[in-house]
User: Fold this.
Amino acid sequence: KDRGRGTGLGLATIFGTVKQAGGAIDVYSEQGQGTTFKIYLPGVEGPADSLVQDKPDLEMPGGNETILIVEDEANVRELASTILKRLGYKVFAASNGGEAFLLVEKQKDPIDLLMTDVVMPGMNGRELAERLIQIQPRMRVLFTSGYTENVIIHHGIVEENLAFISKPYTMQTLAHKIREVLNQGKN
Assistant:
């Protein structure tokens, strides 16, 4: 990536995954020569367990609520917007906190859900959510990140009881998580 572009979440995701598995990563880098990553995972003795694959859940629940997506990666933002619009939601999208504030100020009707990336340039997702809830107090929040949930919680970026979905997510996973968050507290 060009200098100043992207968030570098790829390595953080790999690091989190390796750590969760009890492994370690060794990095060697030399200017002009490149970088080598060695990943060490714990050994397992005995035969491997056979995997039983569950049938994929193809049901994708939808709705008619209003969702604001704040995501600095254009491809992710556009894909999530497209999926949610096809499921019947009214969707607004912003690439950063400033754009999100402008959209909220223009929006006359309530925003039912804020789906925000946790790590973004400038204002992070948690700060954005705290500020927007002051304007839209009934708005629910779904945090998303390429970091694993354990890494996000461990670093205090998002608390354990808040709604979270890891990237990359499937269309079905996103549809179910959105519906789950929107239905919280409804009887």
